[in-house]
Amino acid sequence: LHLQFNRLGDQGSQQLAASLQHNINLRILDLHNNQIGDAGGQYLATALQTNSSLTVLDLSSNQIGDNTAQD
Description:
The chain has 3 helices and 2 strands, in the order αβαβα.
């Protein structure tokens, strides 16, 4: 699923993360350049703890800081 350049931001990431927690089919998610910050990165990281189907996640060109990326 290619959602690049959509200005999702942290709020959009929160909504997407809620869906990812229940996803069983999506394998690739491209979110590059969506103005996602640390909060959005944290929402997505939490969702990935329960998502076993996603194999590729592109978060490049967002504003996720190093500390969030390491968590």
